[in-house]
Write a structure and sequence with these properties.
By secondary structure, the chain is mainly alpha-helical. Helices cover 21% and strands 5% of the residues. It has a domain of 47 residues. The longest helix has 16 residues. The radius of gyration is 20 Å and the shape is globular. The N and C termini lie far apart (66 Å). Keywords: Signal.
């Protein structure tokens, strides 16, 4: 029984090691590519953290240009 259990754990570990994070399409970033880039000049953003070398698109701001029109309310 111990050998079967050990083999099962080994196979699970090997299978999970082979899985990789998705490669985001141009214009998207994040762990599951769920965030859209807002870089100036339609430049690509960093696929992991969304940062923009070109700066943010007009009207957008924040470390990943994630705040834009209607995203922040003021009183």
């Amino acid at each position: 029984m111990v050998n079967v259990l050990g083999a099962y754990i080994f196979l699970l570990a090997a299978a999970s090691h082979g899985q990789s994070k998705p490669q985001c399409s141009v214009g998207w970033y994040g762990p599951n590519c769920q965030y859209q880039c807002h870089c100036a000049g339609s430049a690509p953003c960093d696929k992991h953290d969304g940062s923009c070398r070109s700066g943010c698109e007009k009207g957008w701001f924040g470390p990943a240009c994630q705040y834009g029109p209607g995203s922040v309310q003021t009183q």
